[in-house]
């Protein structure tokens, strides 16, 4: 196990009706709020009107930034910063999934940064401070509600990049599983894959002896497997929505990664797909993951796949190691198929044309992963396998 | 899953050599420190001299409260409060296991309480504020390093009671697994049982649908089973010590309990044993746990024991439910025996004399547990079974 510094200060108000705490929580930090949201689903499912009612009845002033895209754009960040500066806003309230929260985080940090906000995406070390953030989560997926990271897309340069700073961690997040009852099937599936992928990025690691972290990781994976399909079939199943929602936060709040060395693989590959083709992040992850697993599984890494197969998929440990590993990957693929995740890039409109460009872009800062490092040729091979 | 408010603000500095952060961390909160420790083992293993060297070389003034007992006494708390008041101490630094940390917490809260400190043990609602605490952990057991609770013993009244307040959560804790290399076999065993017992108290619950919490709980149990015996046999096995240490914090920082209804059973029973006979807490828990399991396992609760047997002990799920449950309890008992935990109260000097008195005392605030509520007759039956 590696040394680590653990800090997860975000408070979570979890469960049906927890929105009631919103006014008192906001008032701890500010009085003038920027409400950040996406395409308007929160207006259809009643969350927006509930939030507005609470803000108004508690004399909390607010301004709105709407239309944040699923892969949130730096253009939205710029608009948000401008709104904050013009109106002396002192608190940011994203209502939505990872997109709204990520966008809010970079607005919060960009507010204190004098230059062009894309700079702090390219170079997170330029971030010094951020406005306080409280999130109302409506999609179980990215884990952004409980961590310091954000991913922002620049469509001008075809770049989708991660940034982050401890000051960007939400002060609190409200997780009401009923707010995810209206999430459509395909988004529920993509969110489930996203959660699993966050776990995989840390689980498949070259760090030895991080036993407790690996068992915790398997807990989250099992939760996704137990409830992913169920939440699609029964969108108002509270138990399924609640378990997925809490799993999404735990998958990426640091808990599973602390004590392990990690450099991600599938996420940076997928970010290129999203940056060039604007596809749903979780779908891209779902397509790439099994091919990535097949590609990186070798004599050095096989034990991790055996561990995964036995502990997560319940494969008989007496079987041959290679057989267990292959079965584990096959089961992963079958599970994603059961969620109606496409298994080929061509199904989401991605052909051969830009694979090389994207493979180079994915590795522009060096090889991906530590478990089995991937250079641009490796990434290209995985992309081609996934075509 | 029940609603919950999650707040785990304690920062953790985990790993060998993390003591180096001590001066800068203390200076965030205070300048005059009360160093709290037990019987002097930290003087033998070098931790004390390292701490003193760091404090001195950073011009941090400190006073000492030593001799805190394994079941920390209210008398130590009173002494600590007096030292703080006389010297305008503004930071408390326990170096040790749960005893030193628990004692420090009640000193920290008692400092702001004008009356007799035992009042705030009897009635935690009287706690308004606490001095900041930072802990250096030298024993993997109680989880006190990352939570708000404390257990204090009053030998005059034969009472061992829990108290707590969010203000008592340590600001930070330093977890260096090498500091537990010198923990003797019997304490390593008792600590491992204590960790498992904390998990059991929340795991065996009547709350339905807390799937993710149950899987996380099993992670911690598996970690104890994997490393408990190994840490006894190879006291300087870093991997074993590190996994147990981190498991101890995660077992009781809230993570496993949030979203579940719980009212503890075995801990309050054991507290009476410790209060009357001053036995090692983890040993008392180890003796009682299997008898408690046998006593509470019935038609209503059997599924939880089946889940436990299959997921933690790898018992074949195709077996008969009753057989799985019984096997799970048997395996628990065998594991404790492998740790050299006695399996009978008489082995630790507890006879029949006070069983009835202790059973009544354990239930003086009402029945124990929600999973299978226990009145004083039930507790007496379990005590008798454990004789």
TrEMBL record, chains A, B:
Residues 188-387 form the Fe-containing alcohol dehydrogenase-like C-terminal domain. Keywords: Oxidoreductase. Signal peptide: none annotated. Pfam families: ADH_Fe_C, Fe-ADH. InterPro entries: ADH_Fe/GldA, ADH_Fe_C, ADH_Fe_CS, BDH-like. Residues 9-177 form the Alcohol dehydrogenase iron-type/glycerol dehydrogenase GldA domain. This is Alcohol dehydrogenase YqhD (Iron-dependent ADH family). It comes from Clostridium punense.
């Amino acid at each position: 196990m590696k040394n680590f510094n653990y800090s997860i200060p975000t408070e979570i108000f979890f469960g049906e009706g927890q929105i009631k705490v919103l006014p008192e929580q906001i008032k701890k930090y500010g009085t003038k709020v920027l409400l950040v949201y996406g395409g308007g689903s929160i207006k259809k499912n009643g969350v927006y009107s509930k939030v507005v009612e609470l803000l108004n009845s508690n004399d909390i002033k607010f301004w709105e930034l709407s239309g944040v895209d699923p892969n949130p754009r730096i253009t939205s960040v710029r608009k948000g910063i401008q709104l904050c500066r013009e109106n002396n806003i002192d608190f940011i309230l994203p209502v939505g999934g990872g997109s709204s929260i990520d966008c809010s985080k970079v607005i919060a940090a960009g507010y204190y940064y004098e230059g062009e906000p894309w700079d702090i995406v390219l170079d997170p070390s330029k971030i010094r401070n951020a406005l306080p953030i409280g999130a109302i989560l409506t999609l179980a997926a990215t884990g952004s509600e409980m961590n310091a990271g954000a991913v922002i897309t620049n469509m001008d340069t075809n770049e989708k990049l991660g940034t982050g700073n401890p000051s960007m961690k939400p002060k609190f997040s409200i997780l009401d599983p009923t707010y995810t009852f209206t999430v459509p099937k395909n988004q529920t599936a993509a969110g489930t894959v996203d959660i699993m992928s966050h776990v995989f990025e840390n689980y498949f690691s070259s760090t030895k002896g991080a036993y407790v972290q690996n068992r915790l990781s398997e807990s989250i994976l099992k939760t996704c497997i137990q409830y992913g399909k169920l939440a699609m079939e029964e969108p108002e199943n509270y138990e399924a929505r609640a378990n997925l929602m809490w799993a999404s936060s735990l998958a990426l709040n640091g808990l599973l990664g602390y004590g392990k060395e990690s450099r991600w693989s599938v996420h940076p590959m997928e970010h290129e797909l999203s940056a060039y083709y604007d596809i749903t992040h979780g779908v891209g992850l779902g397509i790439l993951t099994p091919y990535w697993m097949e590609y990186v599984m070798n004599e050095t890494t096989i034990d991790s796949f055996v561990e995964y197969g036995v502990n997560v998929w319940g494969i008989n440990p007496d079987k041959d190691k290679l057989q267990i590993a292959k079965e584990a990957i096959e089961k992963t693929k079958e599970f994603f198929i059961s969620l109606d995740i496409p298994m080929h890039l061509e199904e989401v409109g991605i052909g051969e044309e830009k694979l090389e460009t994207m493979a180079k872009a994915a590795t522009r800062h060096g090889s991906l992963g530590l478990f089995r490092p991937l250079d641009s040729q490796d990434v290209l091979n995985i992309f081609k396998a996934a075509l």
